[in-house]
Design a protein that fits this description.
The complex is a heterodimer of chains A (407) and B (511).
Chain A lengths: L1 H30 L7 H26 L8 H18 L4 H24 L5 H20 L4 E2 L3 H7 L16 H5 L10 H27 L7 H23 L6 H19 L1 H11 L1 H6 L4 H27 L1 E2 L7 H11 L11 H20 L4 H25 L4
Antiparallel strand pairs in A: 1-2
Helix pairs in contact in A: 1-15, 2-10, 2-13, 2-14, 2-15, 3-4, 3-5, 3-13, 4-13, 6-13, 8-9, 10-11, 14-15, 14-16
Chain B lengths: L3 E12 L2 E12 L3 E5 L6 H8 L9 E6 L2 E3 L4 H7 L1 E4 L11 H5 L6 E2 L2 E2 L1 H14 L15 H14 L4 E5 L7 H18 L2 E5 L3 H7 L2 E6 L2 E7 L6 H9 L17 E11 L7 E11 L3 E5 L6 H8 L6 E9 L2 E3 L4 H6 L2 E4 L3 H5 L6 H6 L7 E2 L2 E2 L1 H14 L16 H14 L4 E5 L7 H16 L3 E6 L2 H7 L2 E6 L2 E7 L5 H13 L2
Helix pairs in contact in B: 4-5, 8-17, 14-15
Classes of the chains: A mainly alpha (407), B alpha/beta (511).
Chain lengths: 407, 511
Amino acid sequence: MNNVKEFMNRNMRQYGMAFALVVIVIFFGVVTGGKLIWPRNVQMLVRQNAYVLILAIGMMFCILTGGNVDLSVGALVALVSAMSGLMATTLGLPTWLAIIFSIITGLLAGLWQGFWIAYVKVPPFITTLAGMMVFRGINNIILDGKTLPLSGLYVTIGTGSVPDIAPKTVPDFLRIGDLLQLQNKPEFLNVTMLIVGLALSTIYVLFTIYNRKSKQQRGYEVASLNSAVTKAILFFIVINVFSYWLAMDEGLPIMLILLAALYALYTFIATKTIPGRHIYAMGGNIKAAELSGVNTKKMMFLVYSNMGLLAGVAAVVTAGRMMAASPNVGLNFELDAIGACFIGGASAYGGVGTIWGAVVGALIMGVMNNGMSIIGLNVFLQSVAKGMVVLLAVAFDMYSKSKSRLG
Amino acid sequence: MSEYILEMQNITKEFPGVIALSNVNFKVKKGEIHALVGENGAGKSTLMNVLSGIYPHGSYTGSIIFKGTECKFRNIRDSEAAGIAIIHQELALSPYMTIAENIFLGNERARNGVINWDETNKEAIGLMKKVGLKDKFTAQIKNIGVGKQQLVEIAKALSKNCELLILDEPTAALNDEDSNHLLELLQTLNKEHGLTCIMISHKLHEVIKIAQSITVLRDGKTIETLDNSEHVSEGRIIKGMVGRELTDRFPKHTANVGEVGFEIKDWVVHDPLDEDRVVINNVSMSFRKGEIVGLAGLMGAGRTEIAMSVFGRAYGRKISGTLIKDGKEVTLHNISQAIANGIAYVTEDRKTAGLVHIQDIKKNITLANLKAITSGFVVNEDEEIVIGKDYKERFGIKASSVFQKAGNLSGGNQQKVVLSKWIFAAPDVLILDEPTRGIDVGAKYEIYKIILQLAEAGKCVIMISSELPEILGITDRLYIINEGRVVGEMKTSEATQEGIMSTIIRSSAGR
């Protein structure tokens, strides 16, 4: 009993956020008359908000170092997509090569900012403010106010799905299409998606069992059997429901594979590697971290370089979805990403926050975006609503912190 | 009205786990300079913080009677309004503002919110004359020396029409000339304007020179108030400061001293802010395995600066000298090199630099040596829990589990976590800077036991402490540090508190 309580306490924030996401989904599900959760809209939600997710992952590390942010990511997305247009369309390079160069451009911009922040000690706010102006300016120089079309691999990444290996074999056996009263009722399900979902969830469950056994064998502490089983079953159901949902439409978006891979990679870095631990430690108390041998300069450099890299990835994804490189792309992207991190429970002083939180925060923003668009809410009111959510989320955080013992 | 301007009666102030002041009585006569002396941690600053309202009424027990009426200050503003001003050791001036602006900071000469600069400047010039400050009132604070900054602080206090001025170690950062000037100024203000002063100081010769009464505090209690009209001797004051009973406050041990494990040679360090100022001057010391060596000295003597500059140049600039470990010269450019070479430094500043308060116990313990639990790229968090539990048990860290946040622990338990961190880093040389500061007596005993275990395991243990009884209680040998130099070395068995104190004071006076 004591263990359960302790476990809940330790993970309270994370569950709280997931709970908030579920509430928001239900709310918009109801007010949109179910439209929000139509398979087509879920697909759109993933594609349209991929950039927030990717940027929020990078931004979370910036915030973890001590409440620092990167204001330049929106402009950097613009710069990188302009580079994409330049290389793929104007110069006519193969799109795969253009994509590689584009991402390298993002990384270089990140290295540039990391250098000023970590080694010249220009405050991140100012460095990235300057970057915001510089990158946006370069975008305009390259594009000269014009929009360049993109094709090939860009569009595949931005809008494509994994092909169905066995089309028209499995019908919508749960009759969800009828239940939701969809306009275009799916006759058949996308088999690839179903198989991937089933495989992933099964692997997860097997891995959990294996991991638990091997921990026990080596004499480490494990969570109680009940909570482990509950967690595994819950995860299994959620994954399969989600994949069934997508299978009713186009199936597995390529973007989703990318997102899942990034999520897994960065969660691993944040929680299981020495650099990850050092970033959390320096955000918690930079003096103590330095006196414990943490190279805080190097960490700042890595974090901001990585932010540039991820902005490059986000740019490719965004350009691909819009099938063009345009001068106005990326406006306010940095604010969406920062907002997502704070909604997701990051501390404004650093040292607290998870990649999972960044993702949930980004999803909350995304669901609100789509939900409000579906009900046709005025764009300006949408902005007001999003702003209020960010404010209230952090206010709630501050309130609950002042209630807990650590003030 | 009585002859006393201030009477503090039965003041008791507790912090979680520590009684900082217990039934302190302190009386100051009108128009006198009253010195408050005692060892570090005796409660002098706490008492003055109670008086000036930094610790508000209600957070302590006892009563303060100022000018015949009982005062219940809620904050500094209240005490200033009553006529009490305090000048802290760390000056509270804004470096980019002018002298005149600083004098009236928070107390602006203004009408309807608009500052009257003519009046400000005129009054500033008058006050500067009073304190003997000859600079222009438009000079920026950052461009005048510490001695003059101290004078600005006094002018600031006078501008508030204070009747009782409290000075916390006013001469600690000053050279002899500036100190003399300041002391003379205090005497003048006292004689000509009838200003009552309370002065906290470690420099006993200064105290004897200018104070009319001297109150000695020790362990949060008033020991005695001496009448200094006949100039008492330093020895008499020291006796009051250090004369406490030692009944089994330290665990017994027999040193098993081996060969020399670590040496510091010709160590010179310059101030990080002022490259021309030598902070550590030609210090050479050696440390044997299994031996606990104390570094005794007053606050600001340079002990922490020696330790931190050795620890991968965590302090200072233009550092020169050699470090020899196990007979081989080592060069340590940064802290991770120092740790890799088996050197650990436990900071005196546990609150701001020792722990990551928002992280749990186990993560704090492994922070300095994550490599030990990492294979490939993966930090083994299960192993971390095992290690956390092991240290929690070994050192008796009182916490609900290793998942408890370090910030929620008591001082003694926090210090055990910090020690665990450094012991887990497996050093050969362990520098402990004020390891028992702010920790209650029971927990101190446990910390001492841990320190002795480390020595028994053959490590070189270097212990910096401002508490002489502690140095005498557990070290085997000690160096006396004063003003950035080694001014004495002795076996602890041959040392006495009076001997150490007078060595320090003699070395100061001799300069």
